[in-house]
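Q: Joint fold for the lines below.
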Amino acid sequence: DAKTTQPPSMDCAEGRAANLPCNHSTISGNEYVYWYRQIHSQGPQYIIHGLKNNETNEMASLIITEDRKSSTLILPHATLRDTAVYYCIVSSYSNSGYALNFGKGTSLLVTP
Amino acid sequence: DVKVTQSSRYLVKRTGEKVFLECVQDMDHENMFWYRQDPGLGLRLIYFSYDVKMKEKGDIPEGYSVSREKKERFSLILESASTNQTSMYLCASSSRREAGANVLTFGAGSRLTVL
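A: Joint structure:
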């Protein structure tokens, strides 16, 4: 699976949009981009995933560049509860789900 | 609304004890996983199972075994606990349906301390 590069930490003011970048320049054609987050002392939580089209759900939006070499997770109106470590993962579908590599992620701090 | 339940949130055991960590999911998922998480090392896969009675080694299986006798339950066993197994243990499950295998649902975690 392709590796990802994320900034180690970011800050965001409460109520503003949080834009979390991820670089995956070696992504291959059959690999999807997944985002998870982990709030302190809890298990990781799935947020969203996509292949090449932009995706939106009730939690966030995922913007993938046309060349698929990078993506951005957008939390449109960040709240204090969004403070967490955010993981960007690139993986092909497999029916075992074994391929996920969580890496170190970006620690997002949402401030009042 | 809890979907993946880990039996113990906090455990303290002594070196050499046999430790059982239990995980139950109610989503009829085929795949189940055990990870451990340590500061600076991220999440590391210990074992996973894609069907009842099936198991596959992950990245760090040494010192651990697993059991999957029923679809909903996946147990992690430390035959003889050691201090280097002090960690946060996370159970997860996912569906084998086309889009689902990499969408993992995690439990809250079990923090094990081995003295």
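Q: Anything notable?
A: Chain B touches chain A at residues 4, 31, 33, 42-43, 45, 48, 50, 56, 58, 90-92, 94, 96, 98-99, 101-109 (CB under 8 Å). The two ends of chain B are 34 Å apart (CA to CA).
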